[in-house]
Design a protein that fits this description.
The protein is mostly helical and 317 residues long. The chain has two domains: 88 residues, DNA polymerase, domain 1; 182 residues, hpI Integrase, Chain A (Orthogonal Bundle). 54% of the residues lie in helices and 4% in strands. The chain is built from 14 helices and three strands. The radius of gyration is 24 Å and the shape is globular. The termini are far apart.
Length: 317
Amino acid sequence: MGTDTGAGERVALPLPVEDFLIHLAVEKGRSVNTLAAYRRDLRRYVGGLAGTVDSATHEDVRSHLEGLTAAGLSRPSRNRALASIRGLHRFLFSEGIAAGDPTADIDAVGLPRGLPRALTESEVERLLECIVGSDSRARRDRAIVELLYGTGMRVSELVSLSLDDIDHDAALMRVTGKGDRQRLVPVGRLAADALTAWLEPAGRAELAPTTWSSRDDQTAVFLNARGGRLSRQGAWGVVRKYALQAGLAKRLSPHVLRHSCATHMLDHGADLRTVQELLGHASLTTTQLYTKVTTDHLQSEYRRAHPRARLGTSPSS
């Protein structure tokens, strides 16, 4: 069995695969973006099978993964594809559609857990200083960057915010995360000030159209230049614009602002559970990645500053 990374895009999915995707959406609450990734992976996989998906063998799966490697897909992409395929076959087996699970003995490609990249606090200040002016776009962009860094929310969570998700009096936001799980997120003073400035008549109202295209656009917190709900790509473009101006383009994305929020909170004494709740991590293990970052920083500063920690030197007598 070969793997054509392009031809699979034109393959219609068999009914058992569609049933699996419905299961993920309805029973597991997977997000639209997650479902789209599963669909792409499974379309490519099914497109290369010689037989039906319920009769796929261990060799079929292994051959597909080898084809992905030969096509130059990265280890994370191959592991994501394997997760999609494994989930499908487990579902088919549990539903009695297939006699076994051909992925049972296939391991994921080893991946080192990547450490989050964080800006320094001075770099965050430099980024924000690039957003100048009081016109509607400057107000919007400042609110976007302040909220991404100030709350640690994902960019998909930010652009899905609606006006009734904001409790101005309590300085809280209702954020809808992965799997449509909702959480309350506190909004700090500077982020709240930036958001208030955006929602004033000189801000959001300036981008609002004469007639709204949809109820979703009308209730959106953040609007694009045409008066529609701002997309993830649009928010990414905002961050990218000021990252270039601040000389941080090679390091900065909306997700790096999320990393920076978590890292700086831990640096200043926040406990791990609080950061987990703020970021909406389902597992504390994910949040614990940030403790490695802050520990590395602590060790570096200790080696730099303590006279008996500096190798090759001796303390003054």
